[in-house]
Amino acid sequence: MASITPNDLQSGAVPQESGFKFSRQFVFSVLFLAAGALMVMFIPTNMAVDAITGVNFGENMANLVGEEAAVLNVPTVTYGMIVGVLYMVIGAVGVAPTARIKRVKYWLLVVGGVLIIPTVLILAAVNNDFNLAVLLRASMRLATPIILGAMAGIWTERTGVVNIAIEGMMLTGAGIGFVAFTLLARAGMGVGSGQVLSVAIAVLAGGLMALLHAWLSITFKTDQIVSGTVINIMAVGVTSFLRREVLLSSQAGVETLPEMPIPGLSQIPVLGEMLFQGKPIFYAMLLIVPLTHIILFYTKWGLRTRSVGENPHAADTVGVDVIRTRWANVFIGGLIAGLAGAWFSLENTGTFEDGMTNGKGFISLASVIFGNWMPFGAMTGGILFGFAEALGDRFQILNVPVPAEFVQMTPYIITIVVLAGLVGRSTPPKALGEPYEKE
Predict the structure, then answer these.
(1) How far apart are the first and last CA of the chain?
(2) ∠413-415-417 over CA atoms, to 5°?
(3) Could you identify which of 16, 207, 253, 352 might form a hypothetical disulfide with 334, taking C-beta atoms 3.0 to 4.6 angstroms apart as the criterion?
(4) Is the whole model's pTM more than 0.85, yes or no?
């Protein structure tokens, strides 16, 4: 067979690949086209022409500009028709068989994706007001354990150890932390001191489960998926036993960690309510994300962590202790997961129920993949899933005619859609899941 020369390429003598390509971009373009057509067809016939949706920007904005000015009244039908037509345009451009406007297609799809959130809210709240500040605050609050779990996953998986045990570490932290709080209250310790000590115990409980994972998967080289599954199952049994033996007979009251508004910053409209009126574990999450990024990418420890996850044999040849690095990072990940568990029982509900983490550890793992094993990317994924859960709660408040079961499924449906369609190509650490054998 004759070789192909650069002149052949320039002259067009080499046949180019042709034909239809069923790409992810094409699929989303078709979905936008269909959604736009449905909106244009059904919105005018199912909503009154004078329907209004009120977007309330929250109490801080009302204090600044007055209650009436803090509410933006949106003509629902007009808004829906404009977005519907725009979606049809985005979809039509996206399915157009030309590669010259590939970048234009991409950014149009991004615009369409961003518009989904306000469009769903405005159409769902027709003839009602919805409080944007409250929704965003709830989204960040509900995203807290997911983001913390994602940070736990990043610390572990960046060294090459798969961590599907995040769920079990969270549940252990939630259960043991609340049991500790109950016993301390029974012993007469004050609420504040008991809560602080209980959070510390929850963190250590997550760390102990992580040490078990490290012992099985690093020292004994057990399959890391099997090790994580064992921990998840064991966490269910241990916490259920403790709840039955300690909590069901307890008279401890329902107490949660106190809210700690930051003076000055908490009065900023929308942003202040979303970020600066939180509780201690929420603030800890906001600190852990940038701290994780700084350590991973700007310190010697982070460089060693990443080198062990990418090529442990090469790291070993330059003096990095691969086993110790993996043990340390898995333990740190467990501590963070234990803190996430403390959020459920000690900060959010003031009680403990069997299986109360409810799959959030697995959603955290999805956030890690969504963020391509990067802290801020994983945080974005966590916020997305937190928003989905907050949106479901808001639907119920607004009496949107959506079955309750579907609302409860929303975060998990989004998890599937994100991983199957939105993530694109994720690049995990090259040595992820591979036990290290010293040569």
Answers:
(1) 44
(2) 70
(3) 207
(4) yes
